[in-house]
UniProtKB/TrEMBL annotation:
Classification of source organism: Eukaryota, Viridiplantae, Streptophyta, Embryophyta, Tracheophyta
Subcellular location: Membrane
PANTHER family: OS06G0641600 PROTEIN, OS08G0105600 PROTEIN
InterPro entries, A to Z: CYP450_71D, Cyt_P450, Cyt_P450_CS, Cyt_P450_E_grp-I, Cyt_P450_sf
Protein name listed in UniProt: Tabersonine 16-hydroxylase 2-like
Cofactor: heme
Pfam families associated with the record: p450
Length: 212
């Protein structure tokens, strides 16, 4: 799996790995996503960009993936503009602040069942990647949101940077294949341990068997 997507850049391949890993671990989510994709594209016989905007559940899967597995767990440092107090702590001016996006996305004060992979929480939700909702900042927040947001989803196999590319790739996999874990491995036994670093990758390569 890692070899297929490595050419698209580390953040892109990481996002793809986590999304597929979470779907493999949650077969009912996979079935719902497959039903959505196949219902919309069945008459065309293939997935293209024309109806990606109709894939509401798949879009929610990507949002939920980035909530639990942001491309960079610690955002770029920011300089505090003026002295302030946050949660009882005095923050001096000019000090560098590091924001833990990984912890924010799992904070039970803002998320029901914060550790659970539940894409439905984003259905009919206005929360998006733009950084205006501070409980969800996988790329940063406010006016200085990460300028590389669109390039996160680059996969070299498609040859063009676009936020739609990751949706297109997942939709094609869901449309054309069923997925099976190797051997007798059960979904609940699937290891989603994290390998800590500048980006958080799965500790073990994600392997699955595609069935046409």
């Amino acid at each position: 799996m890692k070899d297929i997507f490595s050419a698209g850049g580390e953040t892109s391949s990481t996002a793809m790995e986590w999304a597929i890993g979470e779907m493999i671990k949650n077969p009912e989510i996979t079935k719902r996503a497959q039903h959505e994709v196949r219902s919309i594209y069945n008459d065309k016989g293939n997935v293209d960009e024309s109806r990606l905007h109709e894939l509401k559940y798949l879009h929610a899967i990507i949002k939920e993936t980035l909530r639990l597995h942001p491309s960079a767990p610690l955002l770029l440092t920011r300089e505090c503009g003026q002295q302030c107090k946050i949660n009882g702590y005095d923050i001096p001016a000019k000090v560098d602040i590091i924001v833990n996006a990984w912890a924010i996305g799992r904070d039970p004060k803002y998320w029901i069942e914060a550790e659970k992979f539940n894409p439905s929480r984003f259905l009919d939700s206005e929360i998006d990647y733009k950084g205006n909702n501070f409980e969800y900042i996988p790329f940063g927040a406010g006016r200085r949101i990460c300028p590389g947001i669109s390039t996160l989803f680059v996969l070299a196999v498609f040859g063009e940077p676009s936020q739609e590319v990751i949706e297109l790739a997942l939709a094609q996999l869901l449309f054309h294949f069923d997925w099976k874990l190797p051997g007798e491995l059960k979904p609940q036994e699937f290891d989603m341990a994290e390998n800590l670093g500048w980006t958080i990758r799965p500790k073990n390569d994600i392997q699955f068997i595609p069935i046409p």
